[in-house]
From TrEMBL, chain A:
This is TatD DNase family protein. The lineage of its organism: Bacteria, Pseudomonadati, Bacteroidota, Cytophagia, Cytophagales. Belongs to the metallo-dependent hydrolases superfamily. Keywords: Hydrolase, Metal-binding. It comes from the Bacteria. One of its GO terms (molecular function) is metal ion binding. It comes from Thermoflexibacter ruber. InterPro entries: Metal_Hydrolase, TatD-like, UCP005295. Coiled coil: none annotated.
UniProtKB/TrEMBL annotation, chain B:
The keyword Coiled coil applies. It comes from Thermoflexibacter ruber. NCBIfam families: EboA_domain. This is Uncharacterized protein. Keywords: Coiled coil. Residues 234-281 form a coiled coil.
Length: 301, 301
């Protein structure tokens, strides 16, 4: 069975059914970027508790299902627009980015591309540079092409090597420049607003598998946590080689984030055994049968 | 008035340091020495925080090995102190905790509370395992109860199992909560320290109620549940014990025999009639709460 990494998924918004389905589909590790919660936070304490959740409770929750949970920590672009709050968040970030299992600074970048977003993006690039951590960059939904180019320009300006930067949410319009400039090109297979996976197959056919990888970006919106394994299956059916699928759905994401020194393949739990206990807790508590989502509807439009 | 110190901190430092340097490589040894030198001579919260958080990257996460002599040495340094299942990184972190300034309780608590609040899973395990070595123990009682409230299995285990702090410092209510939560979450109960000393009538009744609830639901009850009832027999508990005598499960009958042997209650003693063979074996030490616990967990994983 193939194994997968989903290098962008907001597990705090997902259920245990999702965790069971992920593990069943072969996902052995996930990376959860710090993001906003669907509505703005008003206190720095909310950020602190959220970051603590990412390195504490959520990490444990995933482990119960045999999934290694990592995260990236950062101030997202939307909430960077509240300057008073952003200042306080910047103060607590150093408490978190050096933690075990924090594999990058993210997801940061531009949303509306305001002056404040720019300010905190740059400050966090400096933080990443100092900690020698990869940067996971959220590219904007609106005015995307310009926002993506600008994100890369600013990284270069701050002296950050392209191989330490993951440009996320790419599409047909941004991928070429991202690859040409030597950055990692990540794609979010997310229904309606980001990439569909049939389009993703075409991108891999056209650009190959070097420095390209995919994620689900599944969160509190209508999204699909199984986007990575489903897309892998679709790629196989449409003639993409197993080697390329492995690179796009596992190895490239690993190589990009393992640069943090905080992610080790040897920590993954590879053998799937339904009776196995993870961290002392049975996955199948109370004698329940596992709920396994079928992979029969694998097209994500 | 509670004591200010639970142990001679200098002695505890030396002990942990010796254990570590015996097992880590030269590079890790140098790193540890450099950090303790820094903390001893120019302590700052920042220095402490960085050393504590980054320890696993420099010392690794292998298991800590202890000789039987070192185990008894641990107990001499602090009664009940055991390093069972400790790792190198945890030991290193706790060594650093012992370098916090101890002139002022408020300062000590303020530094460590911040670490508790922003800790990831392995850091929490280290912090709670350090409880029996901390100065100003009465200031950490609330934190101990917070650890009991956790949902993260490894964190709960660090507080509740192989740790002398709870039995010595928790009030009755909190102690009972610890015991019942350990039962409820399927821990090996013999690893809780001080069960006999802290047994009380309320807990005995809670255990009986718990058994009734489980029996009513057609669920199994661990024989470990009866450990604290010995000196608090009432009519209900006597009936519960009679029920154990009828059990098909040898472990339930073994548990009953241990209760009967420890009890001075005439009607409880009478229950031994017809169980002479088990009584014989118990007196010869062929089974114990520990063996019952181990076998129960083996059979009911």
């Amino acid at each position: 069975m193939m194994k997968f990494i989903d290098p962008h998924i907001h597990c705090v918004s997902r259920t245990t059914d999702d965790y069971e389905a992920l593990r069943q589909a072969g996902v052995v590790a996930v990376i959860e970027p710090a993001f906003w919660l669907g509505q703005p936070r008003t206190e720095v304490g909310s950020f602190k508790d959220y970051f603590s959740t990412l390195i504490g409770w959520e990490r444990f929750r995933a482990s119960q299902f045999g999934i290694r949970h990592y995260c990236t920590i950062g101030l997202n672009s939307k909430e960077a627009n509240n300057e008073a709050l952003a200042e306080q968040v910047m103060e607590i970030l150093p408490l978190y980015i050096y933690k075990e299992g924090v594999v990058g600074v993210g997801e940061i970048g531009y949303d509306d591309q305001t002056a404040l977003e720019d300010k905190y993006f740059r400050l966090q690039l400096e933080l990443a540079k100092e900690a020698n951590l990869p940067v996971q960059i959220h590219t904007p939904h609106r005015n995307k092409k310009v926002g993506t180019s600008r994100s890369m320009d600013v990284c270069i300006e701050h002296g950050i090597a392209p191989q330490m930067v993951i440009i996320d949410h790419n599409n047909e319009e941004t991928v070429k420049e991202t690859l040409d400039r030597g950055f990692w090109a990540a794609f979010s297979i997310y229904p309606s607003t980001k990439m569909g996976n049939e389009r993703m197959v075409e991108i891999v056919k056209k650009y190959g598998s070097e420095r390209i990888f995919i994620n689900s970006a599944a969160d509190w919106g209508i999204s699909d946590p199984l986007a990575v394994p489903k897309t892998a299956q679709l790629m196989a059916e449409r003639g993409i080689s197993e080697k390329d699928i492995h690179l796009v759905c596992y190895q490239n994401a690993y190589d990009a984030f393992a640069q943090s020194g905080q992610m080790h393949e040897s920590d993954f739990i590879v053998e799937i055994d339904q009776s196995q206990r993870f961290n002392g807790n049975s996955v199948l508590r109370g004698g329940r049968d596992p709920k396994i989502e079928k992979l029969d509807s694998k097209i994500i439009k | 008035m509670m004591p200010t110190f639970q142990t001679d901190i200098i002695e505890a430092r030396n002990f942990l340091y010796q254990l570590l340097v015996r097992q880590v490589d030269e590079k890790a040894k140098n790193w540890i020495e450099q950090k303790i030198h820094l903390l001893a001579n120019s302590f700052s919260t920042q220095n402490f925080y960085i050393a504590f958080t980054s320890a696993p990257r420099f010392v690794g996460k292998q298991n800590l090995h202890l000789s039987p002599m070192e185990e008894s040495e641990a107990n001499a340094i602090r009664k009940g102190f055991t390093l069972k299942n400790w790792t190198i990184d945890r030991t290193t972190r706790i060594l650093f905790v012992l370098y916090l300034p101890t002139e002022n309780a408020e300062n000590h608590v303020s530094i460590l509370s911040k670490v508790f609040q922003t800790a990831e899973v392995n850091e929490l395990v280290a912090l709670y395992a350090a409880l029996p070595l901390l100065p100003f123990p009465e200031k950490y009682i609330y934190q101990c109860t917070e650890g009991i409230r956790t949902n993260m299995a490894p964190v709960f285990e660090a507080v509740a199992l192989n740790n002398p702090f709870p039995a010595e410092f928790l009030d009755e209510n909190a102690w009972n909560q610890l015991f019942l939560k350990a039962i409820f979450t399927g821990k090996k109960i013999y690893q809780i320290q001080g069960i006999k000393q802290r047994a009380n009538a309320t807990l005995a009744q809670i255990c009986s109620d718990f058994a009734h609830e489980r029996w009513a639901a057609g669920r199994k009850v661990t024989p470990e549940l009866w450990m604290p009832v010995v000196h608090f027999i009432n009519d209900t508990i006597l009936k519960d014990l009679e029920k154990l005598k009828e059990s098909n499960d040898i472990l339930q009958r073994q548990a009953l025999v241990l209760v009967c042997l420890e009890s001075s209650h005439a009607q409880v003693k009478e229950l031994l009639t017809g169980m002479e063979d088990l009584k014989e074996k118990a007196l010869k030490g062929e089974f114990s709460w520990e063996s019952i616990s181990e076998q129960w967990h083996e059979a009911n994983q």
